[in-house]
Amino acid sequence: MKRYLALTRGNFQVWLAYRFGFFFTIIGNVIYLGVAYYLWSSIYQHANVIHGMTFNETFIYIALGSAIFILLKTYADWIIGNEIREGIIAVYLTKPLDFQLYALFSSLGGILMNLAAISIPTILILTLVFKIQVTMGLGLILFPFSLMLAFLISFCFDYFVGLSAFYTESIWGISITKEIIITVFSGALLPLQFFPDAVQKILLALPFQAIYHTPLMMVTRPNQGWETFGPMLAVQAFWVLALFILTRLFYNQAIKILRISGG
Amino acid sequence: MHSMGEYLRLYFIIEAQYIKARMQYRADFIISSIGMFFSSLATLAIFWVLFDSIPDLAGWTLMEMVFIYAFYMIAISPMQILFDHFWQLRFHVAEGTFLKYYFRPLNMMFYYMSEMFDLKGLTQFFVGIILLIYASVQLNLDWSLLRLGLLLITLFSAALVQISIIVAATCAAFWVINAWPVLGLAWKLREFSPYPMSIFDGAFRFVFTFVIPIGFVAFYPSQLFLRPEEISPLIYFSPIIGIGMFAVTYWIWTKGVNSYTGTGS
User: Fold this and answer.
1) Of A132, A222, B39, B259, which sits 20 to 30 A from A85 (CA to CA)?
2) Average pLDDT for residues B73-85, to the nearest whole number?
3) Domain ranges (residues) in chain A
4) Is the ipTM of this complex over 0.95?
5) B-chain residues within 8 Å CB-CB of A69?
6) What is the DSSP pairing of strand A53-54 with strand A49-50?
C-alpha cells in the first residue's frame, strides 16, 4: 500500500508544477457557470418547476456537475495510452507493481490536486457569487463516499480507453467517444429527469449515471433517508466491482499482444 | 516571396503526401471519424431532449437552434481541418523541434499549419452541411443567389474569427511554459458560440460580442438568415471583424516566432 501511495504523492507533485494553469481553468469554469446560469434562467422563464426540479436544484446539479467533471479529469486514458504506445509500460512491468493499481494511484494524485486547486474554489464561488442555498441532510454526509465511488467508476473507463492503445495507433477516437457517452448519458450536461421516461429507465440501468447523477442527486435532494441513498450507493459499489473485474480481464487479454523492441 | 498560386499548389502537394501517410492507420481514421460524428451529434441530442420540456429558448425554436448549430459546425471546420497543428505548438516549442520551421523559404504559419490536415474534421463539416440544409427546408427559408453569397461571406468571416481566437491562444506557448490552460480556455469558449446571445446580459454579452467575439462564430450571422428583420447592424461588420482579428493574430504569431529562442540544445 505504501508504495502505491508514493505514486499518488509523486503525481500530486507533478501536477503542482502546473499550478499556473489552475488560474485559467478556474476562470474557464467560472465563465462556464455564468453561461449555465443564463442558459438555465432562460429555460426556466416558462415554468418554476420542470420535471419536478426547481431552478435552484437544477443549477446546483449542473454547476456541481461541472466541478466533478474537472475533478475527474486526470487524463489517465491519455497517460496510459501514451505509456503503452511509447513502450514505457515495459518499465512498470519489471517492477513488483500491479499495473491497474499503479494507474489508479497515479491518477489519484491528479484528483487530489484538482480537488484542492479547482473543485473547492468552484464550490466557494458557487456559494458566494451565485448565492446558492444548499439544504442540510444525510445526502451531504454521504456525498464524499458517493464521489469516491464515482471516481473509481470513471477511472475504469479511462483505464479501459488507455488500454485500447494496445490495439490502435491513437486513442483520440475512443477517448472522445467515451467522453461524449459519459457526459450525455450520465446527466453531466442535462439532469436525467429531463430525459423521456423510457430513455431515463435505460440510462439508470447503465453505469454512467453512477458517475454524475448519483452523487449530484445526493446534494440536490439531501433530505432523504437510507432507504433512498442505500440502494444508490449499492448500485455504485456494484459497478465499481464489475468494471474493475472487466478491465482486469481486458488487460490480461491485451498484454499478450505487447511487443516492445529493445532500445 | 511566393505567389498565392504557388502556395496553393504547394499546399495540395503537402496534404496529398500527408493523407497518404495517414492512410496507413486506416482503423484509426475510421474510429476518429466515428468519434467526431458522435461528438457533433451530442449537442443536438441535448437540444432535442431539452426542447421536449420547453417551447423555445429565449424565443428561438428547436429548428432555429439546429440551424445555428449547423452554421457553427461549418464555421469551426476550417480551424479543425486546416489549423489542427495548433494543438502541437506547445510541444514543439518546449522540445525545441519548432526550430525546423525557420529553415524554409516559406511563410512560417503556412509551413507550420500545412503539416497537418485533419481528416476527421471533414465529418463535422459534412454533418454541418447536411444539418444546415435540413433546417433550411424545415424552416422554409428561401435561398436566393444573393443570400447564398451572404452565407458564404458570413461563414468565411466566422471561420476567421474562430481560427483567430484559437491561434492567438496557442501563441501563449511562445512566452509561457505550460500554456495549455490558455488554449483550454479558448477551446471551452468555442462551445458557447451557438447559444443565443440574447440569453446573456451585461458583462457576458459585452465580452462575447466585443472582446472575445464568439457571438460572431454562429449566432449573429445566423440571425441574418433566420430573422432578417431583427438583426442588429453589427452583423455587417462581421467580415471586418474576421479579417481584423486574423491580422491581429498574425501579428501576435510573428511576435512569438521572433521572440522564440529555442531550447538551447
Assistant:
1) B39
2) 95
3) 2-257
4) no
5) none
6) antiparallel
